[in-house]
Amino acid sequence: MRFPVVLHTDDGVRYGVTVPDLPGCFSAGDTFEEALDCVKEAIDLHLEGLVEQGEEVPVPHPIQEHQSNHDFADGIWALVDVDVSRFDGRAEKINITVPRRVLILIDAYAKAHGTTRSGFLVEAARRAMRGRG
Fold first, then answer.
1. Residues 112 and 123 both lie in one domain
2. What global pTM score does this model have?
């Protein structure tokens, strides 16, 4: 899952990071790259806490939906990939019907992007449902 984050700096070297879709989730780093690495860990820990409290993993919103928030003015936007599969619960096998040609295209796309058919379909479903409650 790709979470938008906004980075702020006062000195152009050290960065604070906010995750708009996860209120209370913050991080920082002594460099831009370190800040992005640290925020991934912060997101993971934040999601772990949510799941332990019985809450769902929120679906991130597009950056454009956050940019109008004055709290993020002058921030630098980035997307960080976080593997949320460990919070999804036990995998379940399903049986679906897909046209053969579409299945061939799905398999080719998944292979070209280093994932599996199931992984691709789950991510496609997440993207389709993003922002819909």
1. yes
2. 0.69
